[in-house]
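Sync notes, pocket subgroup
Present: LS, DG
LS reminded everyone that the earlier model was apo-only. Rerun requested with iron/sulfur cluster included. Inputs:
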Amino acid sequence: MAEDYTKEGAQYGFHFDQSLCNGCKACQIACKDKHDLPVGVTWRRVVEYSGGSWQVQGNTFEPNVFAYYTSVSCNHCENAVCMEVCPTTAMSRRPDGTVYVDESKCVGCRYCQWACPYGAPQLNAETGHMSKCDLCYDYRSEGKDPACVSACPSRALDWGPIDELREKYGETNSVAPLPDPSITKPHLVISPHRDAQAWDSGTGQITNPKEI
Ligand code: SF4
Ligand code: SF4
Ligand code: SF4
């Protein structure tokens, strides 16, 4: 029998090992392919963030620069502000803790999109409804891992009950350019890149805005 990956009360979330991510975007493409998402809708996105400067040291220029990637989707947050603002209760939580869009109730008002600091809910113009990561509920129902997790060639992504992920990987849940984690309490654990900047540092900039 397949393992039960939709356990009631599990409060599933993601782990992202930023030190292993090389920005290949296989996770982003695997998600898009698995869910057959139209152009302009991307449930998992890989963000490039870089900054720093050069200093003159004697007769040479010394670099003090950084660049790293962050792969991010919906974080199935403890404080899901998307659910709070949804006027029709279309944005809902499953018994296993994951947040999903009940399309039969969604009127496409976009309140959830504006409220979510991760930009996770996106309008699918073909259906007229919001859409977002459901942590691959159908795959999990069959005892399979989410598509993005399986696709990562660097094994930078993991998933599971958030308490287990925190025990295994620590408590870090934000780095720049992700938002203040106190807003939604994301079910996300990050193993930071060696050059990762604090979420509120403002030291760099997103360098691939047209891709995300
Ligand atoms: S990341 Fe955004 S859409 Fe996902 S649960 Fe949190 S607030 Fe809602
Ligand atoms: S868990 Fe599934 S729906 Fe969510 S980002 Fe990964 S592939 Fe996409
Ligand atoms: S597939 Fe893995 S290595 Fe590639 S961008 Fe996604 S998380 Fe990073």
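DG: The chain has six helices and ten strands.
LS: Residues 30-31, 34-35, 43-44, 73, 133-136, 146-148 surround iron/sulfur cluster (ligand 2) (CB under 6 Å).
Action: DG to write up.
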